[in-house]
Amino acid sequence: VVRARRTDLGLVTVLAVLSALLVLLLPSEVVVLRGPAALALVLALPGYALAAAILPKTDVRVVERLLLSVALSISTTIFAALLLQVVSLKETVGSWSLILAAVTVLGAAGGYARGNVRSIALPRLRVGRYEAVALLASIVVLGGAAVLGFTPLSAPSHTGTTTSLWTLPAPHDPDAVAVGAISDELHTQRYTVDVDVNGRLRKRFAAITLAPGATWSRTVTVGPGKPPIEVFLRTTARPARVYQYTKLARGWPGLRS
Amino acid sequence: MGAMGALPLVLLSCSLGVAAVAGADALSRTGRPYASVLFWVGATLIVLPAVLRMAFESVGAGERIATVIAVTLALYSIKVLRDPFSFTYADEFPHFFNLQQILRTGHLFNSNSILPITPRYPGLEAVAAALARLSGASPFACSLVLIGVARVVLLVALYLFYERVSRSSRTAAIGALVYTATPTFLFWSSQFSYDSLALPLATTAMFGLMRWGQSRDVATRRRWAALMLVLGAAVVPTHHITSYVLALFVGLVCVSHWLMRGRRGAPWRLALVLTLLALAWLAFVADGTVGYLRPEIATAVNKVLQTLRGESSTRVLFANQGGPETTPLSEEVVALIGILLLGLCVLAGTRVAWLQRRQRNPVLAVLVVAALAYLLTLPLRFVAAAWETASRAGEFLFIGVGLTVAIGLVAVMDRRQREGQARWRGVASVIVALIFASGVIAGWPASLRLAEPLEVTAAGHTLKPPQYVAAQWSGRELGRAPVVAAQPVDARLFLVDGHQTAYAGTFPDVQGLLNARTVGPWRPLLRRYRITLVESDLRDISTDIIAGYFFNPTNTPLAPAVQANKFNLPNVNRLYSAGDIVIWGVRGLW
Description:
B: 7 strands
């Protein structure tokens, strides 16, 4: 067993079991640990083991073996998904980890039985001073590029923005409607919302202040019989102009409370 | 040079190139000038030094492979940096929805109202779902990682394939880098779409075929055949056309082998099994594929014939069909020079292959024919309906172009070097860089290569464009039940952000419904497809599935207001209003 552990297939088997345990036992929020385990199970280990079981013992370069490991792992995952579908099993963490770890262990056993096993030897790589500086600089530059690339920035000038208004039957009260607004503006604005029932003002919400991205909603009792509802959104800067308008037709056709 | 050769310098150059592109994207997202210049500086920093280094004879295979991987990842990062927050390519939405559905239901083969054929080829989404389920990371992040790995697999497989065909690591590395000049490579093939995974698997299978052909004993041959079939079988449930092209490629190798070396020894059985697998999937799982592909191909063929007969006008080159984007004159010139150089290099490579015909290399013959066929598809770019078909075929034919161009360039460099003209390495590198640039220019509209404002900050908050806000509101407030009819851009957002069934386009004829002046004639359609919501979006950009996902300027062109106002009826609810975007409850019209 000790000797097997020092071989590539021994290591692959241990890693597969360890990865399966990690994804099974750790909560999904621990992506830092589950992520590498998932990558190994889906994109590397089953293929490496299968390659050992299928490929000839000699005349396969390391880069060829690594390429085939990834390609065969992806293929294994595709076939595993189809198999789960055929036997009507759900694709869960349990089914995925079990099937991928099992393929890895079986593949490694096949490779071991064929004698297609190698002792682990880490490649020796001498990195000179200038090479190290260049590599370090690459990492720093890439990090900067990633931060810049994944950070939301301010909008260009003249970007068209708006505030949306919505009206729906209230979820738990058949005699009420829910009214809401979502600001998609670049600046904080103040609004007025008027709710008309049967053409007459039932409720006015004045001085609603919404920052960019902020939302606002209220429930308004409108009485029985699903009367026609009209809702008007105006900005306090231009009170004469209706900015947004929504309505529920008489009987609120097609809508359920 | 140290033990790593020039790799650290190439990596640094690639990193600087990525940083330049990130800067260009930042300028573009905030509406500032000179973004395009910075983009080209970045692209040049990624490609040119790498090709120059690969042109040297003395470089080891390890450095060559590492360089190819570095360039691949750097080029992929251009696409990732363009869309860092969510997918915005038209086909990415239905595929991402398929992934969401697999994660929600735990099963494959769910429905998809935008591209109904895609759930029948679930290979890509199955792998992404496994990654997302096991890692706990977001499906978007897992999809990005998966496509990145697929890109690396593609280029490493191509390198190893070319190396086996040409028996030269130098030719292989240059060929792999030339392949990045495929017009679809930088953006289209990097998207979260089924062909982005299928092609890398197919290319690895092609490498397996080479190893099968070069095996010396029967047992080894069987092993490589088994491996090739496993990979080929994985392509079948991943992408229709790629599985057919793989079977066709193996079939052509058989024919080529028969013509050059006789019938014995050709991979007849492999071709037969791959063909049967693809046909079986077509017959028993994805029988809608024929109906999906037939109109595209039939329209393309008809338009070509009409253009040849002079009955149809030719397409304007370098223009986005259906969109306002144009290509600057300087880029048009570079693109034409690049295509010219590509043609010359293909002819040079063809000549070298012809001179080596006594070696009777059947795979090389097929690849050279593919390269020549690529040149023949170039005139199709003048035909509007055939342009897309020609462009998509290029993805496969360019596998031949990559090697043929590399063979031609290496032959020229070797000849000049014998004459003492070492500077031809530099000339060859510039030629490859120009070919790459022409591919980029031909592949994607100039104004859409860089990031557009998708998530913007204002007063410490992050905002998304109004079409996203509408779709997310619909999903949050109304749940999964509604069936929505909307413009092509908006329908994709209802699908992915609203998790609702959404229809767009002409089948069913949602476009007709939205463009009509009255609703009356369209009530049967609403009833038949059980459409409960219609979103009217008057912004013209909402019909542009390439450019319509971002914040737009205030003066964006609008469709006539009657297209929205026709829904202002007594039995229709106006549920949501955001200026030019209105969501109507139309259940009362059934």
